[in-house]
Amino acid sequence: MLIKELKLKKNQAVLIEKAGDVIPKLIKVVEDSNDQDLIAPSVCPCCGAAVEVSGVDLRCTNNECSGKIVPRLVYAAKILNLDGYGPETMKLLYEHFGIKYLYQLIETNYWYEVGHLPGFTDYSAELLATQIKLAIGSVTEAQVLGALCIPGIGLELSKKITDEWSYEDLFIMNKVSLDSLDTTIGPTRSKWIKNAYNTSEQVFR
Question: Which pTM was predicted?
């Protein structure tokens, strides 16, 4: 883990660069400190569940954690070009209506109650509902696949996949075999799609 590898402490000055011009990457300590060593948390700050080391990441073991679900919903909304669906809105939708998956987000049976949530009015709720209706009629299959937040399957790779298979084809393939994906996107990413289907098929409704 990076904390141990770099012997990180409180109040140290560190050098951070952008990895791939996007992700901040801690390179090295440039000014030391006499303060106590940093200790990696043993529980998730969002839900209190245990955490585990996965590569360079520290991950919550609770799949129902809002710290996992809300960012996925926000990312999905961004892929689908939905305005107004930021972290605060998604957290409210998750907490009040149990919205966890893309198919739940685009359903309309809960929208008449959104106007009663803190910070919302009937008008603002109607605006958000309109965004969903517009998206349903305009998004591409690649956007839908990318919005499912499958590890390693971003929008560009989703375009590559849906150039060869329609979204419906992928769903049918789940019933038989997704092995033919291996030659297009590699066995690792193909495995992620298979795992996502097997773990929670309703995600793909």
Answer: 0.71
Q: How far apart are CA 96 and CA 69, in angstroms?
A: 14
The 8 Å CB, 24+ separation contacts for 11-14 are 11/35
* 75: three-class secondary structure by DSSP: helix
Strands (E), 33-136: 51-54, 57-60
Residue 168's SS3 state is: helix
Residues whose CB falls within 8 Å of the CB of residue 33, separated by 6 or more in sequence, listed in order: 9, 10, 11, 12
Q: Which of 15, 16, 9 is nearest to 32 (CA)?
A: 9
pLDDT along the chain (205 residues), means of 10: 80 82 78 85 93 84 92 90 90 91 80 87 88 85 84 82 77 57 70 64 49
